[in-house]
Amino acid sequence: MSDNPNHVTIVMVEDDEGHARLIEKNIRRAGVSNEIKAFADGTSALDFLLGQDRTGANRKGEALLILLDLNLPDMTGIDILKAVKGSPHLRATPIVVLTTTDDQREIERCYELGASVYVVKPVNYENFANAIRQLGLFFSVIKVPEAK
Questions:
Q1: Which of 43, 98, 44 is nearest to 66 (CA)?
Q2: 3-state secondary structure the chain
Q3: Pairing relation of β-strands 117-120 and 9-13?
Q4: Distance of alpha carbon 16 from alpha carbon 34, whole angstroms
Q5: Residues whose CB falls within 8 Å of the CB of residue 110, separated by 6 or more in sequence, listed in order
Q6: Residue 81 and residue 110: Cα distance in Å, rounded?
Q7: Cα–Cα dist 88/59, whole Å
Q8: Across the strands, what pairs with 37?
Q9: Staple partner for 26: which of 35, 65, 85, 132, CB 3.0–4.6 Å?
Q10: Residues forming a β-bridge with 51
Q11: Of 100, 97, 145, residue with least CA distance to 121
């Protein structure tokens, strides 16, 4: 496990370009300088995370943190959550679900499937910006396991 939190790559899966920019801007404002890889759909995110063989072995030794929107154009965030947590190499990867859905059953399902944190995107800009800034502070103190 790396003790340097700057080695953690943040993988953002968010199809709304405005939300993606806002998330990145506020993570930076919180003083987090980690690399952010952004994907606008689940297919390209899973290609990056799991590789051609879909095992996740391609990310071996990397420390990743995934920011995941549940509502994507090609699949649900739940599908991605299941795929990542089903990979022997990525199952320890922290996943922060960022979505507009505050349905209690959906929240419970995400936690059951292995989500680390579930954040409801406030529609109000200032609340959303504050939520992301708090996430930035969270990123700066958590330890992320490297993929095995």
A1: 98
A2: CCCCHHHCEEEEECCCHHHHHHHHHHHHHCCCCCCEEEECCHHHHHHHHHCCCCCCHHHCCCEEEEEECCECCCCEHHHHHHHHHCCCCCCCCCEEEEECCCCHHHHHHHHHCCCCEEEECCCCHHHHHHHHHHHHHHHHHCCCCECC
A3: unpaired
A4: 21
A5: 70, 78, 81, 97, 118
A6: 8
A7: 11
A8: 11
A9: 132
A10: none
A11: 100
Tokens representing 13 are: 């899966």
Length of the chain, in residues: 148
Q: Which residue has the tokens 């609340």?
A: 127
Type of residue numbered 31: G
Residue type, 95: I
